[in-house]
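$ fold --in a.seq
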Amino acid sequence: MKFLRDWLRVERPLGVATHATQTIELQQPYEQAFRACIRGIEDVLGGAVREADEPRGSIEATFGLVNSERLTCTLQRITEQSTRIIIESRHGASAQPAKPSQYVRALAQFLQPATPAE
């Protein structure tokens, strides 16, 4: 199904999501951004990277034992010196609307540290 959506380029309306997600753009080469994602997941957030495929640009990680949260990072080269990262969180099936994820927010903040004011 995802293949069809990607092929047709069907975009969801802003503000509508089935799970917590955040997209950021880094002014870093792809390889450096990939390593930073893994470091952020393991060393900063305390997650476990279950699968990391650098050529495909995908990282799968889990957090917690009970009601665990899965985190997926998808990296895309924009230019030689910039990379787009889509950070998505997934929980088990629920009838409730998606809630914000502290892991998505924390990883995005780690990857994009605030720039000091001039």
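$ fold --in b.seq
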Amino acid sequence: MSEQIQGVQTSPRDLIVTSNPLEYGNIEAWMNIIESYHKAHNDHQVELLYEAEPVKALFSMFKMEENINRAGFQVQVFAGDGNLKDVPKLYRFLVEGGGPNYKQFLKKEVYQVLNLF
């Protein structure tokens, strides 16, 4: 993360990935979920970690070898306003997006953001 937001920071939380293999759709679902979270909390920053390293470009995860460490993902939130009420919901959606039922997070109109938060 190049610029850390001042305020409250959550501890990194393990992000359970149940989709095997991790598919392009899972990555797109994560992107849509995070985009929806940012729409509701534009002063927050969501950081995905893989094996304790920040993921710089989420689409790069799709290019990784097929046998990725599915237990190696974590999520962390930096909240400029200190409001963490939607973080548990964000986490739950990211877990669902990392599983076989990710398609529910792909259904949106072009150039629109999912209304999840």
